[in-house]
Design brief:
single chain; 156 residues; alpha+beta
Amino acid sequence: QLPSAFGVATEQALLILSTVAAQALSAFRDVDVSVDADEETPPPPPLSAHGKRRLARYYRNDDSVFVDHEYIIKGLAGRILWSLLRAHAEGRRTFTNKELRVDPTLALPPIADNLESRLILLRRRLAEKAPFMRIERRGRGRFSFEILDEMEIKEE
């Protein structure tokens, strides 16, 4: 094996191949895949209301979310939670990964946004810090956001 065994032509071919592969993966990520009813995850049992009223505050300066004066999360995951809280207040319960990915208010990076990882982190954080809120998968690329208690939201 000689150093510099690859010539200029091989390097250019590999560059073209990797560029095409990256574009294909990027395009595939943005495809809205429809889900058959057979593939859907069955819904979890409904939440029972505790009758407790809670206050969620969003702080725009660092994208942090507090519920009843307790810190929940900040950063991109905080922006995602705030977006879900606002939509929930308007009556929305189900969402798609794609709609989050194209939401300009979340300011996701254009490449390698790791949205799924952030949703997993958010789901775990809610289970740990705010078990009255939950994110559940509803099939490929879809999820629901449920809140057990009555929630008031305020932006600071």
